[in-house]
Structure formats: structure tokens, C-alpha cells
Specification:
This protein is about 10% helix and about 45% strand. By secondary structure, the protein is mainly beta. It is globular and about 60 Å long. The N terminus is likely disordered. This is (wild Malaysian banana) hypothetical protein. It is found in: Nucleus.
Length: about 350
């Protein structure tokens, strides 16, 4: 029985149906200076770090000038092209692609689309956090520690994999189920922490509407309102919708890396004279203390603004394992192979979906 379970662990690793790295080989990247719930209960805290994220908004014609000493502009634009992942799922990947390997502390951003029976069956993680934000439909999560739940459109799951999780992520509604999944790196001191979950239903996510701007505050702060989500790696995550003619000026901690991902419409980012950027583009922002955005089109503009404090540590990745040295990666593979040091429950666990096959 032990031998069979050991083979099972290694066999899954050899052909995992998970959101993988661009090449399924180890890669080393130096730190880049710019580049509750069914799942458990814990105390939510404000994220550490500098979060003076003052935000203002106005309609075109108000001529409001943002008080940024060093406004951010678009330093790089990456189109997220569709590719196959998991089992029959489709993702648009920008961060984590060949065009943008990572943006410290962010390892990957996928806009995913999946319809049953496709999905992301049983697969492991170690050394980072996954943030799943549903846009349409629903996704059911189940892991080897007995946690199970479903998040629906507008809901959020913030999973800290830490020393190890094996789980499945499968569509829960008929038709197309879409969302964003962001991978956030953990510092070397946190990579082997105990796994944990934070989950917010749509109705519990803080929201501000003002002057044609609607912002959902997933992490961090905007318009003086702070999210209850605790971010192990200091992070801000804001979902903005700007009506035609609206503009917004959002402060971002100056020493953080930040980017925008456009979900719908087109907008002008950073420089009022810049050309509009359109949906499915990731915009890497230059260093600075804030971002200005203008919607000069006739349709709503929806985008997420995400920023994080760089870890400035080596990144060594092999598929779903992200550590700081090659030796730690080899140890992660060994721990998974032999179901130990965080993967003990793998010996006797299959998700319900896997058991039915």
C-alpha cells in the first residue's frame, strides 16, 4: 500500500493538470527591483506595509489634478494570449508567460475560462499564495485537509499554500466559468508556514462608488476604505469600473511593483496623452507613487490594479513548487513523492471528482 501511494504521488507530478510554469523545468530568476469561510476561521488583519493609498475620482471636465510627486506610467504592455491548461481549460496568461516571466512578488496571472467536464483536477502547491477571483459562474475547491467550498461570481479565495496543499479546482456551474488567478510569492521565511484560507463572498467585499467610479477593494485600501484580507506578502488588489468620462487617481506605495490587467473596454493609463490600452492586456507600471486612469470611450472600462512589495529574493520554480534554491526544490519534489513534510495526507486522498473517474 505504501509503495502504491508513493508511486501515486510521483505519477501525478509527472503529468500534473495544474496551471504550470511556461516551461515545466526549474528556472532561477534574481529578485527584480521593478520588473469566514468554510475553509477555516482566523483573525483578519490589515496588510503590513505602507498603504497610504489615497484615491480620488472625477468626471471629465472637472480638471482634477492628482497630487502625485512621481506619477506611474506604462513601462511595458503584454497581451495575454489564450492557451490550454489543466484538463481542457483555457487561460490567458500574462505574468508567467515568456513575455513576462514574473514581476516580483507576482509569479503568474491567468484569466481562466473553463466549462465542465474540463477543469483543474488534483494538483499540489508549495511556497506561494494563490488568489482566485471569480468573474462569472462558480468554482468548487476541495483539498486533502478536508476543506471544501464553492466561490461564485464576485467571490474571492485567498489561499496560502505554505509548506504544501493538494487540491482540485473544478467548474460548478453550467456553461462558461471565468475568473482571475494570481500567484503571489512568499518570502523564504514564510514558504514552509502552515496552509490557510481566506474567503470573502461578493457581498462582503468592500465597495465604493463615486463620480462614475466603482471600486471593489479586494486587498489594500482605496477611497479611505480598507479590505479585511490579510496579505502575508504585502499586496493591494483593486477592481475598478469607470463609466464613460470618468477618471480615477489611485496612490500606490512607491517602492512596490504594480500592474494593471484590463478586463473590459479601453482606457488611458498613466499619461493623459498615451494611446488607449484594450482588454486582455497587462500593463506593467513604472516606479512611482500613484496611477491616473481616464475612460474617454463610450463604454465602461473595467480593470484590476494590483501591487505588491518586492521580496528581492531568488526565485526557483518547478511547476507548482516555488522556492529560493534548487536544493529546496529537490526537497519539495521528494516530500511530495514520499508524502511527507506537509504532504502526508496525500497518501489516502482523492478529490470527489477523481474518485468518480
Amino acid at each position: 500500500m505504501t509503495m502504491r501511494m508513493t508511486v501515486r504521488c510521483s505519477a501525478i507530478f509527472s503529468n500534473l493538470p495544474f496551471r504550470s510554469s511556461p516551461t515545466n523545468q526549474s528556472s532561477v530568476v534574481a529578485g527584480i527591483p521593478w520588473s469566514s469561510s468554510v475553509f477555516g476561521h482566523f483573525k483578519s488583519q490589515a496588510a503590513p506595509g505602507n498603504h497610504h493609498t489615497i484615491c480620488s475620482s472625477s468626471k471629465m471636465g472637472d480638471h482634477e489634478t492628482p497630487s502625485f510627486e512621481k506619477p506611474r506610467h506604462v513601462a511595458k504592455k503584454v497581451l495575454a494570449r489564450s492557451q490550454q491548461e489543466g484538463v481542457g481549460a483555457s487561460v490567458r496568461r500574462s505574468i508567467g508567460s515568456g513575455a513576462l516571466r514574473n514581476l516580483d512578488p507576482f509569479l503568474m496571472l491567468d484569466e481562466f475560462s473553463v466549462s465542465a467536464p474540463a477543469g483543474f483536477p488534483d494538483h499540489p502547491h508549495r511556497g506561494f499564495e494563490t488568489v482566485t477571483y471569480m468573474l462569472q459562474g462558480a468554482s468548487t475547491h476541495q483539498d486533502f485537509a478536508g476543506h471544501k467550498g464553492t466561490i461564485r461570481a464576485g467571490d474571492l479565495q485567498w489561499m496560502t499554500a505554505g509548506r504544501g496543499i493538494i487540491h482540485s479546482e473544478m467548474p460548478a456551474d453550467e456553461g462558461e466559468n471565468t475568473g482571475l488567478q494570481l500567484w503571489i510569492n512568499l518570502s523564504s521565511k514564510d514558504k514552509m508556514m502552515a496552509p490557510r484560507y481566506q474567503e470573502l463572498q461578493s457581498k462582503d467585499i468592500s465597495r465604493v462608488e463615486k463620480d462614475g467610479v466603482d471600486v471593489r477593494i479586494i486587498a489594500g485600501e482605496s477611497f479611505g476604505v480598507r479590505s479585511p484580507v490579510y496579505t502575508q506578502t504585502p499586496t493591494m488588489y483593486l477592481d475598478f469600473t469607470l463609466q464613460p468620462g470618468a477618471q480615477v487617481h489611485q496612490r500606490v506605495p512607491e517602492d512596490w511593483n504594480a500592474f494593471v490587467y484590463i478586463l473590459e473596454g479601453e482606457g488611458v493609463f498613466g499619461d493623459p496623452k498615451a494611446s488607449p490600452a484594450t482588454s486582455h492586456h497587462t500593463l506593467v507600471l513604472s516606479p512611482g507613487d500613484g496611477l491616473s486612469v481616464w475612460n474617454r470611450s463610450a463604454k465602461p472600462l473595467r480593470f484590476v490594479l494590483i501591487g505588491g512589495q518586492p521580496l528581492n529574493e531568488p526565485i526557483v520554480q518547478n511547476g507548482p513548487f516555488v522556492m529560493t534554491t534548487q536544493a529546496e526544490i529537490q526537497k519539495a519534489i521528494e516530500d511530495y513523492h514520499y508524502c511527507k513534510n506537509g504532504f502526508e495526507n496525500a497518501r489516502h486522498w482523492r478529490s470527489q471528482q477523481q474518485q468518480q473517474q
